[in-house]
């Protein structure tokens, strides 16, 4: 059958199937690369996983038996194949720290990180985008300078320091927010986990008092995370807007007497929505993977805190499992952003 005889509908279907297969292949290869990186990191880190299990006082026979049971006596390529097979089947091994399967721990701790990062990115977008637009529209003014200084602080200020200052001021001094943890101690365990998101689960259970208590604990760490994402989003929005405001079509709209508000939000802002999706997606993924210090400061029971505990206890199964999940989420968000980019911008198809 010649290409000319193929109907447009079939060609569209063919292109769609090819795009899906290409997307799946890219995700698979990227994930395979992530598996290889985490595997070899686990082998080069100067931590013996066998000693973490049997202890440093175990006899040589016990040590060798444990090493064989963990498959560490096999050649490296066989270990990698077994590692890939275990991961694909959902088996990340047992955690030395908790005594439970790592996959169960991750399903328990990751929703807490997801909840905090989601609120953080919402704060970053709601405040960061308007600030970036305002700074670009008032380029060189004192408003622009203040917003740029705020962005600079977001890039340079240590997360742990800002978290400690926030706790000292808003919790210990002013009592405006809840303290460390997701809930007050006497509320802990009163809501059965359904989604793992305490805000959602408390609403499902009709426990509105617990909901507002969770909000009071969540607002400060989420705001600290949101401040860092705000700085990045505002800076990128300003950069995109400055480029658009210098375009000829914007100048033409102003010459025609179009109100400045419409020039900024319709003519200049509409074209930057597509690249902003990528910026927001990467910022969100960065919050998910970079919340270790915030979770440590606020005793937040998320995957970052779990990862830190695993490192301190030489719990390599927990460390590698957490790293793999965070990396997989980063890949997923990045690919979703790429898909949305192509859907919203015909030029990228």
UniProtKB/TrEMBL annotation:
InterPro entries: BPD_transp_1_N, MetI-like, MetI-like_sf
ABC transmembrane type-1 domain boundaries: 110-341
Keyword Phosphoprotein: no
Main location: membrane
GO cellular component terms attached to this protein's record: plasma membrane
A GO molecular-function descriptor: dipeptide transmembrane transporter activity
CDD domains membership: TM_PBP2
UniProt key word Membrane: yes
Membrane topology: Multi-pass membrane protein
Keywords from the UniProt entry: Cell membrane, Membrane, Transmembrane, Transmembrane helix, Transport
Family membership noted in the UniProt record: Belongs to the binding-protein-dependent transport system permease family.
Name the record gives this protein: Peptide ABC transporter permease
Taxonomic source organism: Devosia epidermidihirudinis
């Amino acid at each position: 059958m010649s290409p000319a005889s193929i109907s447009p509908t079939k060609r569209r279907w063919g292109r769609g199937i090819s795009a899906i297969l290409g997307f799946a292949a890219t995700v698979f290869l990227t994930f395979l690369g992530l598996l290889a990186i985490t595997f070899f990191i686990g082998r080069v880190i100067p931590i013996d996983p066998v000693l973490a299990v049997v202890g440093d006082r175990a006899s040589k026979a016990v040590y060798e038996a444990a090493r064989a049971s963990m498959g560490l006596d096999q050649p490296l390529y066989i270990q990698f194949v077994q590692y890939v097979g275990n991961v694909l089947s959902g088996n990340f091994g047992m955690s030395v720290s908790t005594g439970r399967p790592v996959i169960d721990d991750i399903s328990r701790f990751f929703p807490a990180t997801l909840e905090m990062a989601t609120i953080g990115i919402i704060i970053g977008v709601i405040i960061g985008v308007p600030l970036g637009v305002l700074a670009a529209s008032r380029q060189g003014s004192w408003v622009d300078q203040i917003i740029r200084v705020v962005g600079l602080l977001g890039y340079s200020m240590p997360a742990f320091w800002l978290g400690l200052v926030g706790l000292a001021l808003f919790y210990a001094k002013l009592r405006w927010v809840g303290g460390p943890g997701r809930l007050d101690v006497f509320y802990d365990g009163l809501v059965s986990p359904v989604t793992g998101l305490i805000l959602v689960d408390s609403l499902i259970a009709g426990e509105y008092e617990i909901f507002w208590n969770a909000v009071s604990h969540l607002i400060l760490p989420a705001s600290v995370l949101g401040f860092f994402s705000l700085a990045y989003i505002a800076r990128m929005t300003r950069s995109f807007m400055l480029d658009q405001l210098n375009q000829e079509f914007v100048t033409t709209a102003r010459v025609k007497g179009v109100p400045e508000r419409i020039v900024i939000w319709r003519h200049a802002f509409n074209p930057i929505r597509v690249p902003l999706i990528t910026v927001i997606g990467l910022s969100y993924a960065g919050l998910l993977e970079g919340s270790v210090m915030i979770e440590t400061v606020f005793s937040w029971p998320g995957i970052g805190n779990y990862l830190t505990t695993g490192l301190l206890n030489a719990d390599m199964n927990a460390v590698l499992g957490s790293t793999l999940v965070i990396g997989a989420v980063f890949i997923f968000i990045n690919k979703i952003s790429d898909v949305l980019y192509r859907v919203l911008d015909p030029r990228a198809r």
